[in-house]
Design a protein that fits this description.
Elements (H helix, E strand, L loop, with lengths): L9 H4 L10 H8 L7 E2 L11 H10 L12 H11 L6 E4 L2 H12 L5 E5 L5 H8 L3 E5 L14 H7 L4 E7 L11 H10 L5 E5 L24 E6 L12 E4 L2 H10 L7 H10 L3 H24 L3 E3 L5 E5 L4 H10 L2 E2 L1 E3 L4 E8 L3 H17 L1
Parallel strand pairs: 1-11, 3-4, 3-5, 5-6, 6-7
Antiparallel strand pairs: 2-8, 7-8, 9-10, 10-13, 12-13
Helix pairs in contact: 3-10, 4-10, 5-6, 5-9, 11-13
């Protein structure tokens, strides 16, 4: 009998896999709960679901499911290019924006190189960095004295840029904190970063943002050839289950990303649904309206409970439950409410709560009050 085992590459040995929100089906199995009575507010999904136009496109697309999708995603790229006022050659499609982030790491990072990102930033950045053998340089977040507490401190991030730095990741707004960087601050950062360093501005939640000082980084692509903007159809467009996202960059950078992109990385139904979703501005606006009201409902509920929270521009909000959040999360599960503990993001007392329907938000707030009173 063989006693040796295959050895992974050294960077993989210490890699911690991404932990998604607990699925409804899993909780129902574990606790014997009726899945119809479970509220999931853990994965920043759109409670309205996809656009009816996207659903119709999916239904029609089933007839050709035996065929491979267009590996270049021509129709979706064409529609995105027109909507975003960019060239098709600037777009790289991905199996969700996570796929695009991984492509960026594979192209620009590796042993002997480093990536910079902020404390409390999206968990995929360290995973993508470590997986290719690069070094992570983590900048401390704002402490609240000269910027939003828990938010990206761009001066601290700039100080982390070293001779070996090849990529900087900026989530705007950031998951899980919901914090954002202003137009002036981001432009100044881009001006200061050496042109040899790729700056990735992750705008996964940009469709929800209504702050006047929030920047549209796409407007700066021509000025900064080292800029990559990533976006997704998983959040405001409600297509999380189909996995489709994209990057917009210079054509030269996009050509590099497409060299390592897997063939047919976006499936046929995802391409069709995303293309149709872009045509339904009414559904997107309804999603914004619901999100705006939901953020206000949750914030009001937290104030009533005497809990601090982090102001958010996303479709989620992080609340400080005033104690270790893990046991609170577990107690909420028993009540059929799934949220997200974020101790792995350096926020052990916080829960991240996705905005749901008014009824789902109320159910969560009532359950949270019961759990905190019982504790």
């Amino acid at each position: 009998m063989q006693t040796m085992r295959p050895e992974p590459m050294p960077p993989i040995e210490g890699l911690t896999p991404y932990q998604p929100g607990k699925p409804i089906e899993e909780l129902a199995r574990e606790l014997g709960l009726d899945p119809r009575r479970i509220v999931k507010l853990a994965s920043n999904e759109n409670p309205l679901g996809p656009s009816p136009k996207a659903m119709a496109a999916i239904t029609q697309g089933w007839a050709e499911i035996a065929r491979y999708p267009d590996g270049n995603g021509f129709a979706l790229k064409q529609k995105l290019a027109a909507k975003l006022s960019v060239k098709m050659a600037q777009i790289t499609l991905g199996n969700g924006s996570n796929d695009v982030l991984d492509l960026i790491a594979r192209v620009f990072l590796g042993p002997g190189r480093s990536a910079v990102f902020a404390e409390h930033a999206f968990a995929v950045y360290p995973i993508a960095t470590q997986a290719v053998g690069a070094r992570a340089r983590v900048a401390p977040a704002h402490d609240g004295s000269c910027g939003p507490r828990f938010g990206h401190d761009l001066e601290a991030m700039l100080a982390q840029v070293a001779d070996d730095t090849a990529v900087v990741f900026i989530a705007n707004p950031n998951n899980p904190t919901g914090t954002w960087v202003s137009r002036e601050a981001l432009w100044g950062f881009l001006k200061a970063v050496p042109g040899r360093v790729i700056v990735v501005v992750d705008e996964a939640y940009c469709e929800y943002v209504e702050a006047e000082d929030y920047p549209n980084a796409l407007a700066w692509l021509e000025e900064f050839p080292n800029l990559i903007v990533t976006r997704t159809f998983s959040k405001a467009y409600g297509l999380a289950g189909l996995r489709v996202g994209y990057a917009v960059s210079s054509p030269e950078v996009a050509e590099l990303l497409n060299r390592v992109r897997q063939p047919f990385n976006v499936n046929r139904l995802a391409l069709l649904a995303a293309e149709a979703a872009l045509d339904d501005e009414a559904h997107l606006e309804a999603s914004r309206v619901l999100n705006r009201a939901g953020l206000a409902q949750l914030a009001e509920g937290f104030r009533a409970l005497g809990l601090d929270f982090i102001p958010s521009l996303g479709n989620f909000i992080a609340v400080d439950v005033g104690r270790e959040a893990g046991p609170v999360f577990a107690a909420l599960l028993k009540k059929g409410v799934i949220v997200r503990p974020v101790a792995n993001y350096g926020l052990p007392n916080h829960l991240r709560v996705s905005v749901g329907t008014p009824e789902e938000n109320a159910r969560f707030l009532a359950a949270l009050e019961e759990v905190l009173a019982g504790a």
